[in-house]
Amino acid sequence: MKLSRSVVVLIIxxxxxxxxxxxxxxxxxxQTYIMEGEIEKARDWLNKNDKDREGKNELLYYMxxxxxxxxxxxxxxxxxxxxxxxxxxxxxxxxLGYEAFALISNxxxxxYQAEDFEKVMVNYFxxxxxxxxxxxxxxxxxxxxxxxxxxxxxxKYKDHKNRYSDDAFAHVMIGLVYDxxxxxxxxxxxxxxxxxxxxxxxxxxxxxxxxEQLKRDILRTAYLTGFHDEVAYYENKFGVKYDHQEPxxxxxxxxxxxxxxxxxxxxxxTFTMVPGDAxxxxxxxxxxxxxxxFYIGDRSKEKQAQLRDLSILRVAFPKYVERAPLYTRxxxxxxxxxYPLELAENINNIAFKTLQDRMIRELGNALLRLxxxxxxxxxxxxxxxxxxxxxxxxxxxxxxxxITLLNAFTEKADTRNWQTLPYSISYTRIMLPEGTHNxxxxxxxxxxxxxxxxxxxxxxxxxxxxxxxxxxxxxxGE
Length: 478
What we know:
Elements: E1 2-4, H1 5-18, H2 23-26, H3 28-35, H4 39-48, H5 58-71, H6 75-91, H7 96-103, H8 116-132, H9 136-155, H10 168-180, H11 184-206, H12 212-225, H13 228-238, E2 249-258, E3 263-275, E4 280-285, E5 290-295, H14 301-306, E6 312-321, E7 329-334, E8 337-340, E9 342-346, H15 347-357, H16 359-386, E10 392-394, H17 398-410, E11 424-433, E12 435-444, E13 449-458, E14 463-470
Parallel strand pairs: 2-14
Antiparallel strand pairs: 1-10, 2-11, 3-4, 3-6, 4-5, 7-8, 7-12, 9-11, 12-13
């Protein structure tokens, strides 16, 4: 069997570009710095390995830069990078060259397009930056953009079959910012919207119920707005009696970002070819009950025999691998009182569910990719057999093996994702007298515990915000 030089070059090129390692494995040093708390070293690594500043991973590059800036307290610079990421997402459009190359290799060669929850987390971190800067109007804009963006994304899905159709915690954030500016009317509306999303979306799809803190804030803002009927309604709904207390100090809103979200890996399905009629064959997988037909056209017996080398194919899909945080609960201790931090956003669960939602689309894209590869293989075999002796490279029986390797090495899932997002977000509000307070954060998992002390200066009639990121996280699959 002979193979043309051009085909050999193409196979070598595509295999070289496909690579073998997952995105997490390629950035393991960076991720290690992050989990060890060496944020400045992670920034230096990102700056030294800046090949992604442009190209297919540009979006991830600016997501990471924005997150690092936020961690280091460089809020203005962080927002510049996150704004760049936001613009890249808005300007994303399919490029025919990348799309065509992806059909003969894998989707990892295309510019990264973020998952839906990653897109809205850009706005979440921008909102946190603006809160730190005291720019509450801008923080509100970013929090509102989360809900607007999700509604726009959901409109693109057929029959709106997308479980992550709204973000309850985004509405909580909107309420918290309105609350801090004493706009209790809009704060109440935002809190009420958050409750509806928890009840209608989060409890059913992500197993997460509304925090008790949210219920207290609904009652308080309804009372302060003079919505007495609403106070009575929610007292009955929550099974509590609201006892309003006039504040003699200020509030501390404490956000706890726990661990890190999942990383992407891949899994695959093997299909077996079943001969058919009228120029068709069918590829089937009995385990998952999947079949898809593939047209090979009318061929002689000799050419049909060539299909034996193409009788089995593998298709790869992305999957998430959880990175469970070390600590599962946390509380704040101040002045002898203990305030639990309540889970308000489980990004890990959202990630897994949203990937499940788009598996049908992933399957369709993967089968189109495999069909294109099969058509290319058949064309290569027939073209190779008909080429002149002078234009061929004698490589024995390498053609079938080379074609098999082409599929094996290039069939990969896109394993890129934003890997510095938290596993979950919890929060609480504490009303404190004016003055300086020492507050202890206690984190535990039943076996291990940790304590960390903070000092906050509370001003009368003001709300102070603080976000703490726990870095302790297990490695993928542990």
